[in-house]
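Hi all, long-time lurker, first post. I run a small reading group and we've been trying to get comfortable going from sequence to structure in the token notation. Rather than ask abstract questions, I figured I'd post a concrete chain and ask someone more experienced to write out its structure so we can walk through it together at our next meeting. Sequence below, copied exactly:
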Amino acid sequence: MQIIFLNNILFSQNKEEQGMFFTRKEYIHHPLPQFDKTKSLLPSPIYDENPLWVETYWKAWEMAFKNFQEPASGSGFVSQFLDPAFNENIFLWDGAFMTMFLNTAHPLVPGISSLDNFYVKQHATGEICREINRTTGKDVDLWQNTEKQPLFSRIGFDTWDERQTTKVIYRGRKVPEPNPELTLDALNHPILAWAEMESYKWTGDKERLKMVRLPLIKYYEALKKYLLQGNGLYMTDWASMDNSPRNICLNKGGTAIDISSEMVLFARNLAEIDDAIGLVTDSKIYKIEADSLASIINSKMWDEKKKFYFDLTIDELKCPIKTIAGFWPLISKTATPEKAEMLVDQLKNPQTFGRLHPVPTIAADEKGFSPKGGYWSGAVWTMTNTMIIKGLEEYHFDELARDIALKHLNAIALVYKETGTFWENYAPDSIKEGRHPNGVPVIKDIVGWGALAPVLYFIEYGIGLKPDAPKNELVWNLKSNRRCGMENFRFNGHVTSLIASPDNNGFRIKVHSDGFYTLMIKHNGRLNKKEIRKGETSFTIN
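-- Answer (accepted) --
Happy to help. Here is the structure in token form:
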């Protein structure tokens, strides 16, 4: 038995006990939210320009409410959650992205708190498994290091169809001790801190940041310990991109542009958390680590001739395949401004990533690209599109970000109109649901992450509303030329309704709010700033 102090709270823990860094220990039962009882309280869009987008928005919420779950008895989970509607498990990757649309209805639905189910299952080593059984609360058997060996991949580095357990080779550094609790397959896409910061923009909840800081730091340190290769970059295997042609390049200890950039993003997010809660000294440490890793990425993984970022083999040869992983340097602010411009060129290029339905998971000029999707050989996934859109905004390519977001939203809406549902992924060269390489359609009724575009993209890029809760500000990028707005918009504890109606050469704006905030409307190249107070406010913009 080990006695430890965390945040002035005394814990008595067995060394192997999970969740030792997280203060929430029990689930407090309360009724699951129901769509028919909650709909009138949800953010309600007004968008005369495209009624189909409004219909798609409500259908996404209706389906999402059917997938809310309570923790199973004995699972050890501490929060209600949205089932990704994929299989019997919860996924870190899916869960983190799903919180980004659930933020829009906080606190009416289980959103960011669903990530607590991962923190409470964190190992004493700091590791968090990417996939946990939602009934038992145990890490999926496949990803447990039951052999107690040094790091290895259970699936291997080719595809799911040709599984081969493969040991990781560390080059230029010692094999870390003790051995990890999980396999390499379990330790990909560390985006929990990013999800927390996206939530913070909507809620302004500093107390939550204080609560999750230690689990996030321990997770970050575990990944540094086990995944850092001797060249200063990070290893992964198939990284949830099951049949991507790049996977074989990562064999035995190759380093990947996505996980390396995600670790830059992780460090920057930890710095942001520390800045938000006043830990300036610690923040500086993470900023230095982020900048140092970004420098290595730019030195080793950028190809000046091909103007793109590439994975490296264990022998540090660039993997000659342009995949969507090469855009993670945008959201992590790894790319220099000049390199970001070149990535934008790729996104606009119809021969590579600028397809009818952007953005495919491999470039269209690569061998094996599937115009029908092919899963990770060309399909369009909402999660990776979200990464690209948010990344473009970091470099102020706001119009391209909006263009990609609305093309994706519109394609999903049109496929919904045709099929009545949402799909796991979509075809890049037609407005169709995605297909596996054997031609079989992908999973339908995915809500889950399937609601990201119909809900979040519609609010942020169609209607144009983006909150900054820490500043108590709401930006409205008003692009529509017809009646537009949202009732019951929620951020920073406020409930506000905003309607813009065409009026001569401008708009008549009506706002109702339950409290004070600053509204900034961007319209026709002008910024209109208005202090909104409790009650009704009306004004005109041109």
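A couple of things your group might point at:
The two ends are 69 Å apart (CA to CA).
DSSP finds 13 helices and 19 strands in the chain.
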